[in-house]
Amino acid sequence: MTTRTTWTHTTTTQRTPGGTGAARPPAATRPARWAADAVTALREGARLRLDYSAQSLWRLDRMIEGIRQEEAPYEAVETVLRGFGAYAGEVIARQTGGEWWASGGDHWLRTPDGRLWDPIDEARRCFAGHGSLRLLCREAVGWE
User: Fold this and answer.
1) What is the CA radius of gyration of the chain?
2) Which parts of the chain fold into alpha helices (H)?
3) What is the model's pTM?
């Protein structure tokens, strides 16, 4: 049995959320939607406003830590973590000009320097107590 990995990445006329007019690769559709859903849920449910800034990731790290301390089962928060990770990816994409890539249902962010980042998995690592969305963004953007 052979496994074939197919990468999805093309820049077409798909528009960013909010109608800014910038072209986005089709691989960005799902993560952008997951991020927007997380922003909406936090605004409406927790009265927390996220503005796609690197500083807002600190709030998400704290929120994930709070969920972890409540000992919520992973299955109960899996979708939330996916949204938080996608949000972090959108922050990185906006800061660096990175683009989403997809393969086999997984999504990564590729920054202009060629590095691949997995912010969705980083959110899962945060939940396990071993990661930070803020620090991932800091490393991806290259801030000291």
Assistant:
1) 15
2) 29-45, 56-69, 74-96, 119-127, 133-141
3) 0.82
